[in-house]
Amino acid sequence: MQLFFNKTSPYARKARVAVFELALEQQISFVEVDPWAEPAEFVTVSPLSKVPALLLADGELVTESDTILQVLDALAPNGQLLSEAPAQRRDALARAALCQGLIDASFITVIEARRPEPQRWPDWVMRQERAIARTLAFIDREFRLVPGRFDAGDISLACALAYLDFRLSHILWRELHPRLARWLDDVSTRPSMIATRPA
Ligand SMILES: N[C@@H](CCC(=O)N[C@@H](CS)C(=O)NCC(=O)O)C(=O)O
């Protein structure tokens, strides 16, 4: 099986972290690609040219990081990223989805800044930054962060917060949310997070 990724993508990082957390490194090889360049060897496998993309042993293509996490969890003999218990599973899915939205807003902000100046839309960026601020406050207020747990919701949160540090360092979220900052510093020592650092 192959997991297509690039080193800076927060979405691909979620999938790569999951591979390490589930100890699937022997079964899945990482293939680094530049999705923006639409290389022929990638688009023939994954027509969207987005990372992550997972090519299964039987040739089936799986796209979208959250779906890839679910598929990886089912592949692993002792999958634990999503609990079988309905209430815990729902909680993990809900946290993962909100954090995916946080990554989306951050990613849009980064991509907007790469446009040529006349094509940028400052109101759109400000809207994303307001969403980021509100979502961080919501997460800080509402999320129960369980020591030792690192499920699908936690992986998404870790990749979202680490992406803010990496690409949007002008957003001073650590001062406003020291509980989340401490949590990120703690989970960043996990081998899966160390192995997938963007730079
Ligand atoms: N919703 C997708 C987003 C994937 C995505 O947009 N990946 C970016 C890299 S961070 C990409 O490959 N972009 C290339 C493009 O849009 O052409 C997921 O969760 O996997």
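^ glutathione complex. The two ends are 25 Å apart (CA to CA). The chain has nine helices and four strands.
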